[in-house]
Amino acid sequence: xxxxxxxxxxxxxxxxxxxxSLIDLQARTKIRLRYLxxxxxxxxxxxxxxxxxxxxxxxxxxGALGLDGQAILERYHKTLQPVPPPTPPEISPPVPARPxxxxxxxxxxxxxxxxxxxxxxxxxxFLNRKAEAxxxxxxxxxxxxxPSYNPPPPQPAPKPPxxxxxxxxxxxxxxxxxxxxxxxxASFEDLCWVGVEVDGQTRLEENVPRGKTLTWExxxxxxxxxxxxxxxxxxxxxxxxxxxxxxxPVRDLVFVRAK
Length: 259
Known about the structure:
- This protein is of the alpha+beta class.
- It has six helices and ten strands.
- Helix 1 crosses helix 3 and helix 4 (51-64) crosses helix 5.
- The relative contact order is 0.12.
């Protein structure tokens, strides 16, 4: 498993056990919401600020959850794979010297005259070929290089919508989001009664079974009244807001588009 992915899952699991949303962690750590999401998902490419900022984010995130930030950093360092040492070059064994062949003097003179004859014959053959060789063809000019192509720069990733919790009590929480529309997804981890209003119109009033996921789209507002808000996982316009609330009374979850 990728080291940052493993640590991100630990932080996300601890955050959900404490009933905290990413909005809450953003307020505590002053770290942008998209960087908190990148840490939980193990996406290093979404944190372009460098290794120093990544370590600072990990330590601050862990500290906000009551974990040992230094222990989290040591765990991140230990899970990084070390660079393997370079392979030493192979050294070929020395080649033994070949024994010299001793030639008697009469044989040496015969070989000397034979070598002279071969050299003379080679020189005559080379001169004849050079005289018969045709003239060299004209040298063509090299063609110009093809024009260079510069690809367009990559487009930046879209920013997540800005979401603020303007009211937060045990029985009611109000989120204000900067977006053109509201897209709300609710995942139910247990049986829960809910009443849903979209733009002032009632859409649902019933017991929703465990394991079901529902989605609503609104232009101005979405309101959910939940009998057990702690069993509902809420996602607004692609941003994970965590559980709908802590164990306790019935709670209204209100989502409003900023004017």
